[in-house]
């Protein structure tokens, strides 16, 4: 699995380096460029946040595309490893890159903290955080986002394996339909069983009024149940993906 | 002796097209077997099933005594008819990939083969000619000390001089106690290295014979016999 | 060494003949070591099993003998080598006579033509014995 990941990273090395540079440049432009237009720290924070979201989505796309290429690649499929390893490598790839993205974001938060912007944002009520857990907030946020990424990826990888198993046209539309269907099904089940407002697969963060991030707070018990529920669903997705790769996905 | 490869009434369809129709065959250790058939006769499908890339619809397949899977992949070296290396790799990286994933990879042998094939580790795979790509493919496949080699059209797209070179490499570097199955439709160039041939047509086995016996009893070359078999219908 | 193989004939027979020819012409002396299967296989670009079979046949005919752990050797019996020579000569003659008969020569004529050819060959040493008929 790690060896597969190594070759994924080697293959995408230049794209990843380029992406990182683009992200840093983008943040720099936001930081310096907005100075002349507006002094609003909220605008800066929102723009930065959008930047991270954008790159987070790019990472998901890159992960899916790499996975799709791998499960169809003859060189990779000849390797004496079970199909679960392709999934494992893709999940690690996505989580690892997201962790790097979050680390960069963390650095920015630290910077904001040191120059007092964080305090100002707090005072302006740009975002509110409801966090009542014994885990420190930054670590909690990190875990929630990575877990959400991981879960979302199990769904996306399943859909990628599904599209590679279908021969007829319109695969992309089917893939999108399956994503929408499955994610609403999951959130419906989640709400039904555990209550709550969550209306999307990508729970963890919800953004309201574009600039308010709310970390869901819930009692430890329902949180754990939710977690187990998603763990089971994710495992089922992975199992289905393995079956599809073994039996249906055609090697080029 | 344990049979390296065994097919028992194996069938495979792609959509409505039957690629293999109840084919049965076996390959003993220490043999170089020619898998002969025209394009679309099912050679590649047969090889890919043996390599564990495709599952048959019905029938039994045994590779080294087991169903094709993770374990057989570690002992079978398959050279596909398409590049197995990725376009971003250099020759060296393509070899490293093999080395990382296959415990039977022999770095010393790969070095000798690189010299023989006049390839350099620094070469970019994306800039290799078709002939050089096939040389690299063969190097990747034969640098392993596998029990069974499956070579899908190793001399398919190269000129006669390169063809000779690839055949020389094959005889020079294959492991004597293992078996090699070579699929091809270019028989005249390669028949002298075979022990036996399997001829398949429309997904069925039409002939399995020792090549020397073919020459001895019919006075024909394998190539001639092949042409006769295929002209029948 | 290279052999132009004829794919219509069993390869092992062709290699046997080749080795016999080498013995008869003295390129492989009596008692001399014969290359190993592997060596010969990669030299001739032939499947090692075919070479193996060639050697087995050669041993069966008494042309070669294997010594445990040392390899295979040409027989050192002069008689055997002589008999190979005769065997090859008779094969050649058979083919030659058959060909001549197809051209319409009878036995006496064939002998005469051969005798003349040999005489010509003596007068011009090294000269080609082209089909001169007097």
Automatic annotation (TrEMBL), chain A:
Entry keyword set: Membrane, Transmembrane, Transmembrane helix
Transmembrane segments: 12-33, 45-63, 84-111, 139-160, 172-189, 223-242
Name this polypeptide is given: ABC transporter permease
Organism: Saccharibacillus kuerlensis
Top-rank taxon: Bacteria
From TrEMBL, chain B:
SUPFAM superfamilies: P-loop containing nucleoside triphosphate hydrolases (SSF52540)
UniProt keyword terms in alphabetical order: ATP-binding, Nucleotide-binding
InterPro entries, A to Z: AAA+_ATPase, ABC_transporter-like_ATP-bd, P-loop_NTPase
Domain of life per record: Bacteria
Domain ABC transporter: 5-227
Pfam families in UniProt: ABC_tran
PROSITE patterns listed in its UniProt record: ABC_TRANSPORTER_2
CDD domains referenced in this protein's UniProt entry, alphabetically: ABC_DR_subfamily_A
GO molecular function: ATP binding
Protein name: ABC transporter ATP-binding protein
Species of provenance: Saccharibacillus kuerlensis
Taxonomic lineage from the root: Bacteria, Bacillati, Bacillota, Bacilli, Bacillales
UniProtKB/TrEMBL annotation, chain C:
One Pfam family in the UniProt entry: GntR
Stored Gene3D superfamilies: Winged helix-like DNA-binding domain superfamily/Winged helix DNA-binding domain
Signal peptide start and end residues: none
Lineage: superkingdom: Bacteria
The UniProt record lists the keyword Transferase: no
Keywords, sorted A to Z: DNA-binding, Transcription, Transcription regulation
Domain HTH gntR-type: 9-77
PANTHER family: GNTR-FAMILY TRANSCRIPTIONAL REGULATOR, HTH-TYPE TRANSCRIPTIONAL REPRESSOR YTRA
Protein name (record): GntR family transcriptional regulator
Species in which this protein is naturally found: Saccharibacillus kuerlensis
């Amino acid at each position: 699995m790690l060896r597969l990941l190594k070759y994924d990273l080697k293959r995408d090395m230049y794209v990843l380096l380029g992406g990182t540079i683009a992200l840093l440049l983008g943040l720099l432009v936001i930081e310096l460029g907005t100075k002349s237009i507006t002094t609003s720290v909220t605008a800066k924070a929102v723009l930065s946040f959008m930047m991270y979201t954008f790159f987070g989505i790019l990472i998901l796309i890159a992960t899916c595309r790499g996975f799709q290429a791998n499960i169809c690649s003859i060189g990779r499929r000849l390797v004496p490893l079970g199909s679960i390893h392709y999934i494992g490598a893709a999940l690690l790839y996505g989580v690892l890159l997201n962790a790097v993205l979050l680390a960069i974001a963390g650095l920015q938060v630290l910077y904001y903290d040191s120059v007092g912007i964080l305090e100002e944002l707090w005072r302006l009520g740009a975002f509110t955080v409801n966090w009542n857990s014994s885990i420190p907030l930054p670590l909690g946020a990190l875990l929630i986002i990575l877990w959400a990424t991981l879960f979302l990826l199990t769904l996306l990888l399943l859909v990628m394996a599904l599209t590679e198993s279908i021969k007829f046209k319109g695969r992309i539309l089917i893939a999108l339909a399956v994503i929408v269907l499955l994610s609403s099904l999951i959130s419906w089940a989640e709400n039904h069983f555990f209550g709550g407002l969550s209306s999307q697969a990508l729970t963890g963060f919800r953004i309201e009024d574009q600039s308010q991030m709310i970390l869901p707070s819930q009692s430890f018990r329902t949180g754990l149940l939710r977690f187990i529920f998603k763990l089971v669903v994710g495992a089922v997705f992975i199992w289905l993906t393995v079956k599809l790769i073994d039996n249906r996905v055609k090697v080029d | 002796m344990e049979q390296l490869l065994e097919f028992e009434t194996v069938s495979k369809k792609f959509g409505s097209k039957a690629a293999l129709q109840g084919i049965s065959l076996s390959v003993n250790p220490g043999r170089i077997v020619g898998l002969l058939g025209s394009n679309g006769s099912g050679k590649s499908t047969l090889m890919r099933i043996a390599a564990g890339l495709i599952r048959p619809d019905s029938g039994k397949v045994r590779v080294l005594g087991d169903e094709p899977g993770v374990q057989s992949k570690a002992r079978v070296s398959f050279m596909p008819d398409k590049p197995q290396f990725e376009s971003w790799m250099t020759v060296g990286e393509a070899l490293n990939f093999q080395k990382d994933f296959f415990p039977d990879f022999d770095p010393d042998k790969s070095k000798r083969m690189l010299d023989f094939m006049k390839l350099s580790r620094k070469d970019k795979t994306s800039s290799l000619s078709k002939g050089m790509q096939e040389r690299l493919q063969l190097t990747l496949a034969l640098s392993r000390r596998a029990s069974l080699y499956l070579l899908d059209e190793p001399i398919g797209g190269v000129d006669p001089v390169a063809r000779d070179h690839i055949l020389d490499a094959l005889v020079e570097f294959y492991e004597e106690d293992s078996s090699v199955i070579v699929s091809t439709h270019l028989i005249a160039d390669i028949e002298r290295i075979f022990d036996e041939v399997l001829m398949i047509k429309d997904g069925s086995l039409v002939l399995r014979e020792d090549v020397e016996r073919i020459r001895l009893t019919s006075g024909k070359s394998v190539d001639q016999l092949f042409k006769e078999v295929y002209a029948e219908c | 060494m290279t052999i132009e193989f004829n794919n219509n004939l069993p390869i092992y027979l062709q290699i046997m003949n080749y080795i016999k020819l080498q013995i008869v012409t003295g390129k492989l002396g009596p008692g001399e070591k014969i290359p190993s299967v592997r060596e010969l296989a990669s030299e001739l670009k032939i499947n090692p099993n075919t070479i193996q079979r060639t050697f087995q046949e050669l041993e069966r005919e008494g042309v070669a003998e294997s010594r445990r752990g040392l390899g295979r050797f040409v027989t050192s019996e002069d008689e055997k080598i002589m008999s190979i020579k005769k065997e090859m000569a008779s094969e050649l003659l058979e083919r030659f006579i058959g060909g001549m008969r197809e051209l319409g020569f009878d036995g006496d004529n064939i002998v005469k033509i051969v005798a003349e050819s040999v005489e010509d060959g003596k007068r011009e040493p090294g000269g080609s014995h082209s089909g001169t008929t007097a």
